[in-house]
From TrEMBL:
Record Gene3D superfamilies: P-loop containing nucleotide triphosphate hydrolases
Record PANTHER family: CARBON-MONOXIDE DEHYDROGENASE ACCESSORY PROTEIN, SEPTUM SITE-DETERMINING PROTEIN MIND HOMOLOG, CHLOROPLASTIC-RELATED
UniProt-recorded Gene Ontology molecular function terms: ATP binding; ATP hydrolysis activity
Matches recorded under SUPFAM superfamilies: P-loop containing nucleoside triphosphate hydrolases
Organism: Dehalococcoides mccartyi
GO biological process, one term: negative regulation of cell division
Identification of the protein by name: CO dehydrogenase accessory protein CooC (Nickel insertion)
Length: 208
C-alpha cells in the first residue's frame, strides 16, 4: 500500500511548505492525496490509517472531504470501512451516504454503541439516506434480548453474519479474506445482504 491518508495529513500539518508560485495548499494536498490511491483490476483502495502527531486537523479534513466527494464520482460504488468508534462521524469525513451499515458484535454493549452512533448522526444532521444494522459473529440465531435493544433504536433492517470458522483459520494463516470460498457461511451471508439491501446480485457488478 502507498502512504496512508492519516500519515499524509500528519506530515502536511508538520511541514513548512515552500510551494511553487501558482500552487495553492488545497491543490498541493489534493495532489498528494492522489498518491495514496492503490489501483488494481476491479478494485481501488485508499488506506486512511490513523492520525499521527499533534495539531489541528480541521483544515486537512476539509480537504479530505472534498477529495472523497470528487473521487466518488468516478466509481459506481464507494465503500468506506471505518474503524470502530464515532470520530469519523464527528469530523464529518463520512457524509452524503446512500446506505450506512452499522456493525456490532453479538453483545448488548455493542448494540448500545449503535444507539449512540445513531444519535450522533441525528445531532450532526448528516445526510444518510438509509441505515441498516449488521450483527457480526452470531452463533446460531440472534438473541431476542439483543433484538429488543435494536428495536429501541428504531432501525427497521437488521442482518446477521454468522461466526465462521474459516475466517478464524484464514486469520491464523494470514490468508487474505478475499480468498474465502463461496461456501463460507460469512461470504454467503454478506452476499445475501448485498442483494437484499443494495440490489447487487453478483459481485462482478461491483467491479465493472
Amino acid at each position: 500500500m502507498p502512504q496512508t491518508v492519516g500519515g499524509l495529513i500528519a506530515s502536511f500539518n508538520k511541514a513548512k511548505l515552500n510551494l511553487p508560485s501558482g500552487i495553492t495548499k488545497e491543490a498541493y494536498l489534493e495532489y498528494q492525496l492522489n498518491t495514496t490511491l492503490a489501483e488494481s483490476h476491479g478494485l481501488d483502495m485508499i488506506s486512511m490509517g490513523r492520525g499521527e502527531g499533534d495539531g489541528c486537523y480541521c483544515y486537512p479534513n476539509t480537504i479530505l472531504r472534498s477529495y472523497i466527494d470528487k473521487l466518488s464520482r468516478n466509481y459506481r460504488y464507494v465503500v468506506m470501512d471505518n474503524e470502530a468508534g464515532m470520530e469519523h462521524l464527528s469530523r464529518r469525513t463520512t457524509q452524503n451516504v446512500d446506505h450506512l451499515f452499522i456493525i456490532s458484535d453479538h453483545s448488548v454493549k455493542g448494540v448500545r454503541t449503535l444507539g449512540r452512533i445513531r444519535q450522533l448522526i441525528d445531532e450532526m444532521k448528516l445526510n444518510v439516506n438509509r441505515i441498516s444494522v449488521i450483527i457480526n459473529m452470531v452463533s446460531g440465531t440472534l438473541d431476542p434480548r439483543l433484538g429488543q435493544e435494536i428495536d429501541k433504536l428504531g432501525i427497521a433492517y437488521t442482518d446477521t453474519v454468522p461466526a465462521d470458522e474459516m475466517i478464524r483459520e484464514f486469520d491464523l494463516k494470514q490468508t487474505p479474506l478475499l480468498k474465502l470460498p463461496d461456501n463460507s457461511p460469512a461470504v454467503q451471508a454478506v452476499a445475501k445482504i448485498l442483494t437484499s439491501r443494495l440490489g447487487i446480485k453478483n459481485l462482478t457488478e461491483v467491479s465493472e
